Amino acid sequence: MSIKSDEVNFLVYRYLLESGFQHSAYTFSQESHVKHTSINSTQIPPGALISVIQKGLQYVEAEVSIAEDGTILEDAPPLSLID
Amino acid sequence: MSIKSDEVNFLVYRYLLESGFQHSAYTFSQESHVKHTSINSTQIPPGALISVIQKGLQYVEAEVSIAEDGTILEDAPPLSLID
Amino acid sequence: MSIKSDEVNFLVYRYLLESGFQHSAYTFSQESHVKHTSINSTQIPPGALISVIQKGLQYVEAEVSIAEDGTILEDAPPLSLID
Amino acid sequence: MSIKSDEVNFLVYRYLLESGFQHSAYTFSQESHVKHTSINSTQIPPGALISVIQKGLQYVEAEVSIAEDGTILEDAPPLSLID
Hints:
Four copies of one chain form a homotetramer.
Chain A: H1 5-18, H2 22-32, H3 48-65
Helix pairs in contact in A: 1-2
């Protein structure tokens, strides 16, 4: 479950590309050398960064909605990414 | 739990800045107009993007390690961000 | 015959664009605010920067090939932009 | 008196650097591979691009102010880089 910085960079690079930030994608590819990593880019599905962020939020939401005794809190507030 | 693109962009921008990708951060700030969003940047802790990605991986790992009947699989393989 | 920095920037911007340096052109347009100048871009012919540089070299070459007494030196060496 | 594109690129790169356009200078250095040329950068004086542009303008001004019969036109209009 460890995250390597190369992997984060690759997800970010793909996000920039897929979102149409072409100049940012270019600059980032140069500055991070992300293209020189050994990551097999064909293994990264489209939208991978957003997908993993969504799962991260679900995880936090699950934590928040379960009380210490294991009961599920019905009225847990909705979460947003930034709050 | 919805993710707004402004929020993802802000996390990405902060990641670029914090990781020392200064030219990418500049270009992305221009291309995404991320500085013109209403996000209160003081609310974003350092390392926020990596933190939420890690939680996303934990979520996936939890899914993988629980069988359909609810039993916990002891020998679930470790996950990596990209595999 | 004065040169305003806005004018130099505009020539440089057009050079970047015309030469296919699209990412540099984008970043420079953002960093220099060159698009917000009052320069009428329709007045700039293609290749303007290279054209004026060539004329600058011709000027230097003329200076070098004319002796102080006004005679023309036949064997003045060819100039290059950088030497 | 020929201009090589490598030489123009080098002058432009130095102009970007000297003028404080650090992000443009970075992107241009990557996109043009200007650092991989054989140009001896120690030979380029500061302000070289502006200097050669000024000389180019002087050349044009001289052309404009001399009539076909060789007489000097006293009332030649001042030139600007862009007009």
